[in-house]
Design a protein that fits this description.
585 residues, alpha+beta, 16 helices
Length: 585
């Protein structure tokens, strides 16, 4: 507007100089000049606002749309939503009638993802085919010398111009944006710069969405794998017969399986409660402090005895919690009894098999030498001795499991060069109701096995074990004596502890089971032992529950006698001599 002011002042000065004599004409011309200048000012102002709308306002709108795309980079990472957003705003920003977005696949080919406004479905595919040979930004028309397939698209669609923008991320082409224009407009350098900026922002949005999609897919796969593993562990946790309780570093319960809930006798899930409220006498807190595991510990839970294992949970050298597994003591004891019974049976069968093979070898040798009379005599002798042994045990020991155990132990002792002597006055009519055959096998079998092992390394005259079973009107007494090396005084108090053993390689379970069975039946066990002389274990079981044992050990002056053949005064052999001879055959 300054130009108009200068022009007005110059013109009025000139008119005043030439028409200073004619004031009427001068005033009239000044009024006409003012009117013309006012119209010129109005016209220039209107043109300026139109120009502003076409330039500044247009660029402002373009930058606003590009800013929206930038915002979408963080507001949405789903690929389809990002592509639709780019396509919609590109058509609106550049006033295009149709458009498409294609992405580069793993084979290096452009594949159309989003289309809008095309008359023919083949048009985006034609653009994809020739996209490699075009620059990053191209504004093509039918009149220009362009790639043939692009010219075909322009003609088919009835377009004036076709804009192609390659989307690059870190100098790598990841996609192609195509737009068709129905009017023949001109694109200035500023317009091309806006296209370039739009392409860059769109490429960043697509790249981030692809990364998110790839990461999300991998994450979903990992989540699925973790879910499968978690469900497997959950099923395993609830299917085992042991109760399981885990706590965190503060002592709050984080995991409980169904068996633990059953042992706790509660229907309420205690997860989130402090362990001291659920298990008042717990030692899990002690395990947290000491970082030391505890195995096979007896514990009272819900009024019942359980065998518990406790251990700290350590990750990266730090204690993050503790876990306890427990099982009913009766279940553990029953399983141990079954295993011991099977082991004793297998050892007895193996010993008898070995004994039978030796006898067959002797018979085979006599047959080869033609000593048939000796064969008959030897077979008769074998039969008589074995039959006498079986008859004695069956007649005196009425419990079949105990009788079978004794027969097996005789063969087992013989195989190791040990004389197993059964006292002639041994007698067992019937076991107490609270002391089953399984309990008897556990107690008697472990005591005999320990006695045999104690005398294996001794001289021939000391390799003797004596077993006595007597049943009175109130008590059942089991006595097992050996002439081994004896038990030192400092170790005698610990021999019944689980895990303690004086033998190398032993796990210290046998005598612990013996103690548990005897105490469970209300009985007592007494140990007499002298170093280098031998040991005698005496077990007393009340026949009836209401009778309390007095702890009096039965005196037996024959425990240290040598196992020599003895005969009665009338010349008949005693039962012990029969057994000894049968073992030596």
């Amino acid at each position: 507007m300054t130009v108009f002011d200068l022009y007005e002042n110059s013109l009025k000065d000139a008119m005043s100089l030439y028409l200073q004599e004619d004031l009427v004409t001068l005033n009239r011309m000044r009024r006409e000049i003012d009117a013309l200048l006012d119209k010129a000012r109005v016209y220039v102002s209107e043109y300026f606002f139109v120009l502003y709308e076409e330039t500044v306002f247009k660029q402002f709108e373009q930058l606003r749309v590009i800013n929206e795309i930038s915002v979408r980079l963080v507001s949405s990472l789903k690929l389809n939503q990002v592509l639709n957003f780019i396509m919609t705003n590109a058509l609106r920003l550049f006033k295009a009638s149709c458009g498409s977005i294609s992405l580069l696949n793993s084979n290096g080919d452009f594949v159309t993802q989003i289309t809008h406004g095309w008359h023919y479905a083949s048009s985006p595919k034609l653009i994809d085919q020739c996209a490699y040979s075009v620059p990053d930004i191209i504004i093509a028309s039918a009149r220009e010398n362009i790639v043939e397939c692009l010219k075909d698209v322009i003609e088919m669609e009835g377009l004036y111009k076709l804009i192609l923008l390659k989307l690059r991320s870190k100098k790598r082409v990841i996609g192609l944006l195509a737009m068709g224009l129905s009017d023949d407009r001109k694109f200035t350098d500023t317009d091309q710069q806006v296209l370039f900026t739009f392409a860059n922002h769109a490429a960043i949005a697509v790249h981030n969405a692809q990364l998110y999609a790839d990461t999300d897919q991998k994450l979903q796969e990992r989540i699925y794998e973790a879910t499968v593993l978690l469900e497997q562990n959950r099923a395993l946790l609830h299917s085992i017969r042991e109760g399981v309780i885990a706590i965190d570093t503060r002592g709050y319960i984080t995991l409980v399986n169904r068996e633990a809930l059953r042992r706790l006798n509660t229907a309420e899930n205690p997860v989130g409660q402090h362990i001291s409220k659920v298990v008042p006498n717990t030692r899990l807190l002690h395990v947290l402090e000491t970082r030391q595991a505890e195995y096979d510990q007896e514990h009272l839970l819900g009024g019942k005895a359980v065998i518990t294992n406790r251990m700290p949970i350590i990750a990266n050298g730090k204690v993050i919690g503790a876990i306890a597994t427990f099982r009913d003591k009766e279940d553990v004891k029953q399983l141990a009894e079954e295993l011991i019974g099977v082991k004793s049976l297998l050892e007895s069968m193996r010993a008898q098999s070995h004994e039978f093979i030796n006898k067959l070898h002797a018979i085979s040798g006599l047959i080869q030498m033609g000593q048939y009379d000796k064969v008959v005599e030897l077979i008769t002798q074998f039969y008589r001795s074995k039959q006498e042994l079986i008859s004695f045990i069956v007649e005196r020991i009425r419990d079949k499991a105990t009788a079978g155990l004794l027969l097996g132990k005789v063969s087992q002792a013989q195989e190791k060069g040990v004389v197993l002597r059964i006292a002639p006055r041994s007698r067992l009519v019937r076991l107490p109701d609270h002391f089953t055959s399984a309990s008897m096998v556990t107690v008697l079998g472990n005591l005999i096995t320990n006695a045999i092992e104690a005398v294996v390394g001794q001289t021939a005259e000391r390799r003797c074990v004596e077993v006595r079973i007597s049943q009175g009107s109130k008590y059942l007494t089991i006595s097992v004596a050996d002439q081994g090396c004896g038990i030192p005084q400092e170790k005698r108090r610990r021999i019944f502890e689980r895990g303690f053993s004086t033998k190398q390689g032993s796990r210290g379970i046998g005598l612990a089971l013996v103690r548990e069975e005897v105490e469970a039946s209300g009985g007592k066990i007494v140990v007499h032992s002298r170093v280098n002389e031998g040991s005698r274990f005496v077990v007393t079981i009340p026949l009836f529950r209401e009778i309390e044992t007095r702890g009096e050990s039965e005196k037996d002056g024959n425990s240290n006698k040598r196992c020599n053949f003895r005969r009665r005064s009338n010349g008949t052999r005693t039962a012990s001599a029969i057994f000894e001879q049968s073992q030596r055959l």
